[in-house]
Amino acid sequence: MQKTFKIVDEDGIHARPATGLVNTATKFTTTECYAEANGKKVTLKSILGVLSLGLEQGDTMSLITEGEQEAEALAKLQEVMISEGLGEVHE
Amino acid sequence: MNKISGIAASAGIAIARAFILVHPDYSVQKEQVEDTGAELKKLDEALEQSRTEVEAIKARTLQELGEKKAEIFESHLLILSDPEFINPVKDLISKDSINASYALNEIATQFVGMFENMKSAYLQERAADMRDVTKRILKHLLGITQASAADINEEVIVIAEDLTPSDTAQLNRKYVKGFTTNIGGRTSHSAIMARSLEIPAVVGTKDVLSQVANGDLVIVDGLTGDVFINPSEEMVAQYRTKQQEYDVQIAEWKKLRDEPTLTQDKTQVELAANIGTPADVEGVLENGGEAVGLYRTEFLYMGRDKLPSEDVQYNAYKTVLEKMDGKPVVVRTLDIGGDKELPYLEMPKEMNPFLGFRAIRLCLDRQDIFRVQLRALLRASAHGNLRIMFPMIATLGEFRQAKEVLLEEKAKLTAEGTVVSDNIQLGIMVEIPSTAVLADQFAKEVDFFSIGTNDLIQYTMAADRMNERVSYLYQPYNPSILRLVNMVIQAAHHEGKWVGMCGEMAGDQTAIPLLLGLGLDEFSMSASSILPARSLISKLTMSDMKTLAKESLTKSTAEEVVELVKATLDK
C-alpha cells in the first residue's frame, strides 16, 4: 500500500517527527515500511535512513507498507504525519 | 593572577576550583582480528552500555530542562539501535575481519559526511548528533575511563575546549557552579544550555584551557565575560560581594515576571522584546515580556540560497503570533542592505551602504519580494495580534506607497476568501532625522512609531557606527537625540498614537529614566534586559522623571545629561 504526502513543516522532516515515524514503524514487526522520495527508497525503521532523504518543505514523500498489517501501519504512520504537522496527503 | 576575557554567555558569578574536562583520544587503529565473534560481542556490549547512559541523561534532561531538550536524546537512542547504522558495522567486522572500533568509525564517518553535505542547515547540524553518539560508543569500545562531566561530585567550574550537547546535559547543577570554554559564541549550543540551567558561563575565551590547571581557583563573571585564574584574596572577597548582590537582584527580578510595569506613581508602560526567530519567543515569555516590539524578519532571508517562500514566512509569523497568544507582535518588514547583505539578490556594491539602497527603499523597488512578505504577514494576522512596521521611512510618500501595496495585497487575499485580521496596526520606524522632524505630519497617518535608535543616532551624528574611529560619536544621551525623541513622542501623543523604541537605548538603565520622563509608551529590548528594566521602573516616580527629562533637554552635552540622571537617581 502506498500514500503520498507533501511536506509542510518549514524545517522539512526533522528529528522529532522522524523519531515518531521510526518508533511507529518499528512497532509493526511483520510489516515492511518504507519512505520514498526523489527516487530514493529507505526503510522507515531507521532514523538515519529517514533523515538521509534530506526532505525539505514542499517536497513530496511516499510512505509504503508491505505485509500482514500494512493497512493499519499506513494509517498509524499517516496519523504521525498529520499530528506532527509534518505533511498533508498529496492527491 | 591571570585575567582572560571571553563572551558573556550566561549571567551570574561563580567562584570555585577548576575541573578540566578534556575530551579523550578517540582515534582508532585498523587491526586484523581472528575472532570476529568477540568483536561483535564487544560492539553489542558497548551499544548496550551507551543506551543505558543515554536513557539516564534523557531522564535527567527531561526532569531539569523539559521535554523539548530531552528530544535530542530520544533520537540518539534511535541511532544506537538503527539497523541501517549497526548492520553495516557488523558486516564490515565480519567481512574484513577487523576490530569493532575501526568498523564503527568507518560507517559513522559516512553518515557524518552525508549530513554535512545536506542542503538544509538543520540536517547539516545533525552531523553533531552522529559524532556525539559515535564518541559514546567508542568510549566503551576503547575502554576510556577518563573523568567525564558525569563524574563531578564537588563544587567546580568546568573548563573545556568546547562542550557537546551530552556534556552540557550531564553537568550536575548542584556541583557545576559555572563553565568556561575556548570556543563558542552567545548562540552556541552550550551557551543556550547554560542559560536554561542558569549556570554562569563565559565562552570563546580562545586559550583558557592552556592557562588553567586542575584545582586552580577560578572566578567566572558571566555578566562581563571575564575569567580570573588564581585571584587574590581581596579579589575573591570583592567578587563574593558582587555575587551576593547579583543573587539578591535575581530573586527580586524574578518576582516581577508576571507583574505589570508600573512606576511608583502607577504610570504603566509596556516592556517588549526584540526577536530574530520564532524560537526566541520562549525567552521573551520566560523573562516576562509583554509584547514583541521588534521581530527582525531578515533572518528568514539570510543563510539561504534563495528567497523564502510565502509559506515558509507564513509559518514563521504564525508561530510567533500563536506563541505570544494575543500579546502584540510588531513585525518589521524586510530590512536588508547596509551591513546586511543577501548574496542571492546580487546587489551592486555601494559607496555608502548605510545611505544607500536598503530596507523600504529596496522593498518598494523590488515589489515582487515585498508583496510575498506582506501576503505571508496578512495571512498570519488571523492567528494573533499583529502589528506591521516599515523600516527606514524617510518621506510620507514612501509610507503611503508601502501602505497602498499592503492594502492591495489585503484586497486580493480577501477576494480569494482568505481570512485577514481587520485590526492590524500599521507603523513606521523613526530612524532618519527627516521623519523625526516631520513626526507631526506622519502621526496623522500612522498607527504608531517605533524609534530605531541605533540608526537614528548614526544618521543624526553623521557617524558610521561600524567605523571605530568615529565611534565616540555614538551618543545616545546627546541632547540632540533626546530632543528628536521628544519631538516624536509629542507629535504622536498629540494625535493619540503610541510610541515605542527598539534599539540598545530602550534597555539601557541610564536611558530608561529619561525615556520614561519623555513619555515613551513601549520599550523593546533584548529579553534578558526586561526584568532589570521593570525593576528599575518600579522604583521610579513619573513626576520626577518628567522633571528630569525636561531638564535634560536643556543640557548641552551627553556628559551633562548622564550626570543629571545619576544625580536624580541617587537622590
From TrEMBL, chain A:
What are the record's GO terms for cellular component?
cytoplasm
- Which BP terms in the Gene Ontology apply to this protein? phosphoenolpyruvate-dependent sugar phosphotransferase system
* Localisation: Cytoplasm
- Which InterPro entries does the protein's record reference? HPr, HPr-like, HPr-like_sf, PTS_HPr_His_P_site, PTS_HPr_Ser_P_site
Tell me if Transport is a UniProt keyword of this record: yes
Extract the PANTHER family matched here. PHOSPHOCARRIER PROTEIN HPR, PHOSPHOCARRIER PROTEIN NPR
This protein is called Phosphocarrier protein HPr
| Native source organism of the sequence | Paenibacillus crassostreae
Upper lineage ranks?
A: Bacteria, Bacillati, Bacillota, Bacilli, Bacillales
From TrEMBL, chain B:
Catalysis performed (reactions): L-histidyl-[protein] + phosphoenolpyruvate = N(pros)-phospho-L-histidyl-[protein] + pyruvate
Name the positions where Mg(2+) binds.
Answer: E431, D455
Any one GO BP annotation for this protein:
phosphoenolpyruvate-dependent sugar phosphotransferase system
Question: What's this protein's name?
Answer: Phosphoenolpyruvate-protein phosphotransferase
Q: Name one GO cellular component term.
A: cytoplasm
**Enzyme class name:** transferase
Please list the coiled coil stretches: 33-60
Domain PEP-utilising enzyme C-terminal, residue spans:
251-540
Q: What does this protein do?
A: General (non sugar-specific) component of the phosphoenolpyruvate-dependent sugar phosphotransferase system (sugar PTS). This major carbohydrate active-transport system catalyzes the phosphorylation of incoming sugar substrates concomitantly with their translocation across the cell membrane. Enzyme I transfers the phosphoryl group from phosphoenolpyruvate (PEP) to the phosphoryl carrier protein (HPr).
The residue ranges of the PEP-utilising enzyme mobile domain are 153-225
Q: Where in the cell is it found?
A: Cytoplasm
PROSITE patterns, alphabetized: PEP_ENZYMES_2 (PS00742), PEP_ENZYMES_PHOS_SITE (PS00370)
Record-annotated residues binding phosphoenolpyruvate?
A: R296, R332, N454, D455, R465
CC cofactor? Mg(2+)
Q: Enumerate the UniProt keywords alphabetically.
A: Coiled coil, Cytoplasm, Kinase, Magnesium, Metal-binding, Phosphotransferase system, Pyruvate, Sugar transport, Transferase, Transport
- What GO molecular functions are on record for this protein? kinase activity; metal ion binding; phosphoenolpyruvate-protein phosphotransferase activity
- Residues of the active site are H189 (tele-phosphohistidine intermediate), C502 (proton donor)
Q: Family, per the entry? A: Belongs to the PEP-utilizing enzyme family.
Name all Phosphotransferase system enzyme I N-terminal domain ranges: 5-126
Instruction: State if Coiled coil is listed as a keyword.
Output: yes
